[in-house]
């Protein structure tokens, strides 16, 4: 992937959605280039790129993708993009609304979200 494209996508995302507190950049050289990291520094965003154990930062999303692949994508022979969109959308609704999670005390993500403390910050 072209570093210039990534820099432009980053600028567009920051302009449209605001600045995060921290950005993990150890996914590839296009995300660790000085052009890319200078945009982050100029926006006063903390940069994480130690390359060690970063999967742990994203373990919940990694589990989501693993579950999606094994419980939906690999079990269905989606023939069109619209079939895949509908099937994956149905699975995500199931995952969030009806599937209990041990990490949430056997509650669904929706139930956990509804019970969160009102003083917690909501991610952008």
UniProtKB/TrEMBL annotation:
PANTHER family: TRANSPOSASE INSF FOR INSERTION SEQUENCE IS3B-RELATED, TRANSPOSASE INSO FOR INSERTION SEQUENCE ELEMENT IS911B-RELATED. GO terms for biological process: DNA integration. InterPro entries: Integrase_cat-core, RNaseH-like_sf, RNaseH_sf, Transposase_IS3/IS150/IS904. Transmembrane segments: none annotated. Residues 99-124 are annotated as: Disordered. This is Integrase core domain-containing protein. It comes from Poseidonocella sedimentorum. Residues 1-117 form the Integrase catalytic domain. Residues 112-124 have a biased composition (Basic and acidic residues). The lineage of its organism: Bacteria, Pseudomonadati, Pseudomonadota, Alphaproteobacteria, Rhodobacterales. It comes from the Bacteria. One of its GO terms (molecular function) is nucleic acid binding.
């Amino acid at each position: 992937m072209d570093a210039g494209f990534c820099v432009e996508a980053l600028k567009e995302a920051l302009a449209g959605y605001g600045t995060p507190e921290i950005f993990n950049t150890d996914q590839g050289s296009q995300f660790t280039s000085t052009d890319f990291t200078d945009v982050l520094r100029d926006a006063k965003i903390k940069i994480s790129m130690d390359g060690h154990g970063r999967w742990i930062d994203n373990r919940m999303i990694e589990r989501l993708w693993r579950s999606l692949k094994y419980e939906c994508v690999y079990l269905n022979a989606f023939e069109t993009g619209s079939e895949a969109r509908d099937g994956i959308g149905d699975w995500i609704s199931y995952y969030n609304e009806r599937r209990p999670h041990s990490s949430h005390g056997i509650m669904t993500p929706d139930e956990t979200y509804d019970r969160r403390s009102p003083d917690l910050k909501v991610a952008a």
